[in-house]
């Protein structure tokens, strides 16, 4: 059987701050699509004031840490004091793992994961509430159809002959962190995106041969910097809002560094910096005439 050796090593002092926990929770809410909850939590916890470089934090960081902690609890339950594995590792739910009474009273009986109801191969706990766990229920259940019912045609065209299906899917790569928002230019085939890497980008997605965006679509990188120590340095704050003016010539962006910025579409020059806010900006909008911008932030 397996045998684990426990050696006497000095215990490492765990460094855990409330700012770090709040930041990971805030990121989790954003990544899960709970934008209003993320905003409320971010404002109350003042996560924007934490000295954390969000561009260095990978996506799904909170879930990754929880999974590793769950694996540790499962392994610790299966190893005796002398280091021998006295029973196979059991799969726990996340709620069970934080309840000492449940862990201590866990029966030693073991069933393979394939025989455990509601447990996936990857080790996810069962969730009976799709509304609370959208990531575990990404698609509606598949309904079987009657074999005698002919399938509906998916494309228009003659009954006989070949039909060419064009693939217009394209992946725009370049951001170094999660993308929070995108906006199409109202006049041209340009797409603007805002990200947690403290940049916005303008993508030229004009169609190439075959109807799909040209391979290696060009991009303008709009770096959001602040003036510090006599020079411009990256703000390291999320760009979470952006909007084109009605003519599609100017792009306005809002950042968690408290500044709204206006950029030109052609070369990505910074036209104006609006610094009246004293806290993160979470929304902004041009008026129809293009001479006013409405912005909303967490400051009072």
From TrEMBL:
One of its GO terms (molecular function) is transcription corepressor activity. WD repeats lie at residues 172-208, 239-273, 274-300. InterPro entries: Ebi-like, LisH, WD40/YVTN_repeat-like_dom_sf, WD40_repeat_CS, WD40_repeat_dom_sf, WD40_rpt. Keywords: Nucleus, Repeat, WD repeat. One of its GO terms (biological process) is regulation of transcription by RNA polymerase II. GO terms for cellular component: histone deacetylase complex. It is found in: Nucleus. SUPFAM superfamilies: WD40 repeat-like. Belongs to the WD repeat EBI family. This is TBL1X/Y related 1b. It comes from Petromyzon marinus (Sea lamprey). The lineage of its organism: Eukaryota, Metazoa, Chordata, Craniata, Vertebrata.
């Amino acid at each position: 059987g397996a045998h684990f050796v426990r050696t006497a090593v000095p215990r490492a002092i765990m460094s855990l701050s409330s700012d770090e926990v709040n930041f990971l929770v805030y990121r989790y809410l954003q990544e899960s699509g709970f934008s209003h909850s993320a905003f409320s939590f971010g404002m109350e916890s003042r996560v924007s004031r934490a000295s954390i470089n969000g561009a260095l934090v990978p996506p799904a960081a909170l879930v990754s840490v929880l999974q590793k902690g769950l694996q540790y609890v499962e392994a610790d339950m299966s190893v005796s004091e002398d280091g021998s594995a006295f029973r196979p590792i059991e799969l726990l739910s996340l709620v069970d793992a934080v309840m000492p009474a449940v862990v201590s009273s866990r029966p030693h009986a073991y069933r393979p994961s394939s025989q455990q109801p509601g447990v996936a191969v990857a080790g996810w706990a069962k969730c009976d509430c799709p509304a609370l766990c959208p990531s575990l229920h990404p698609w509606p259940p598949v309904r079987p159809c009657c074999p005698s019912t002919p399938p509906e045609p998916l494309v228009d065209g003659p009954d006989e002959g070949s039909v060419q299906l064009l693939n217009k899917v394209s992946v725009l790569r370049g951001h170094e962190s999660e993308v929070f928002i995108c906006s199409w230019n109202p006049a041209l085939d340009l797409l603007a995106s805002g990200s947690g890497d403290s940049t916005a980008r303008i993508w030229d997605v004009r169609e190439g041969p075959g109807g799909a965006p040209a391979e290696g679509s060009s991009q303008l990188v709009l770096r959001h910097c602040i003036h510090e120590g006599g020079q411009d340095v990256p703000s390291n704050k999320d760009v979470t809002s952006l909007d084109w003016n009605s003519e599609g010539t100017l792009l306005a962006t809002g950042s968690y560094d408290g500044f709204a910025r206006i950029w030109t579409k052609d070369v990505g020059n910074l036209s104006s910096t609006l610094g009246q806010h004293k806290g993160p900006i979470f929304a902004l909008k041009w008026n129809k005439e293009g001479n006013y911008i409405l912005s909303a932030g967490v400051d009072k």
